[in-house]
Amino acid sequence: MEENKATTNTAAKQDKGISQILPEEKRSWGSVAFIWIGTMICIPMLMVGGIFAGALTVTSIFWVTVVGFAICCLLMVLGGIIGSDLGLNATMTSTRAFGMMGANFSMALVVFIAETGWFAVQTATCALAFNTLMQIMGVNFPFWLACVLWGAVMCVTAVYGVKWMSVLNYIAVPLLIILCVYGAVHSINTAGWGTITDTVTTNAMAIPAAVSTVIGLFALGATCNSDYTRFCKSRGDVIRATVLGVLPAATIMIMVGAIMALGTGSYDVTSMFAGLGLPILSMLVLVLATWTTNTGNAYMSGLAMCKMFSIKDKKRPLVTMIVGVLGIILAIMGLADALNTYISIIGAVVPPIMGIIIADYWVICKGNKDNWKPQRGISWVGIIAWVCSGVFALLETLGVITVFSAALDGVIIAFVVYIVLYNLLKNTKMIGQGEMTIEEATAMAK
Length: 446
Hints:
The chain is mostly helical.
């Protein structure tokens, strides 16, 4: 999912951040696909599977997941090709549609909100797993104290031990895969496939809303696809890396989460793992898996906050700690209990960014990298299109408006509004304060 993205960035810390990727620095599409496969194997996928298990039939869960991630893949391919063509990361590919200043603030704000929220959710999950482990050992541990303890550990790792993240991933991801395979098999053998499929016979959640949940779950990761595809050698490589890296693994993980929830009779991921017959091992793996993911969430959220307020690099450790404290407070307040609502909100405000960037490159620039140049300052056309589409999607999420899926509708509206406004205002300062070269833009952004 979108929060695991940060951990994979750490393993490739030697890569360029802002600078343009040159042709000789490109890589095979398989390496990019592998990054996405690793990103999909995470706890939030299982959590959403658990949410779906209580509201959708097994067949509906499968098709909702396939459709939702197919839409994500389509948007990711269109956005990812931009990164491949230009050799730029996600923030830099938005510097024409939003302007240099507008892109830094809008993208940074989205990353800050999303990653801080995921830090809170994962901290709560880790705290619950730790408390369950303590209860097995006969010790009652306060939830709030567990949040403070593990939130602090994860935050300190992000500040001072970022190099540990790759080592933790090498241990946690294989263990999580093994435990998920065991969990699915154990659940089917224990409950029986017929019982699992017959537990929910009618859909309590509307299919469009479920599709929005899937898109919202991966909205940030999908928006940042260019961070990886800038290393792809061709547009065909972008398609292969994205579709094969995302769709199969994501579908399997959500289905495993649903099967485990139905087989164990619990829709909470901690209880699901505790009901697999290996409670101590399960809780240890869950703690380790959330630890590795959450270290990246804290790191990326702190980095985004620095970008938003132009805070110097030497202050980043302090900013990361502040973000960690905020995340711990949100965890104690129970953000994890509102996970579905949180994902829905992210699914409303993040995807429209993709719609705007895609419209700018594929329609305004006609899909030609030679027509693409970063804009100085702020492009209010992009900002206005984002606000309009985001508000519409939020109203749809709240049930005030009903069309199809808030996440997809937001993308479509952003796409259309941006094109209309751009053509109306292209000769004004509303689209920015003048073009600049990619070399100038990357130099300014460093």
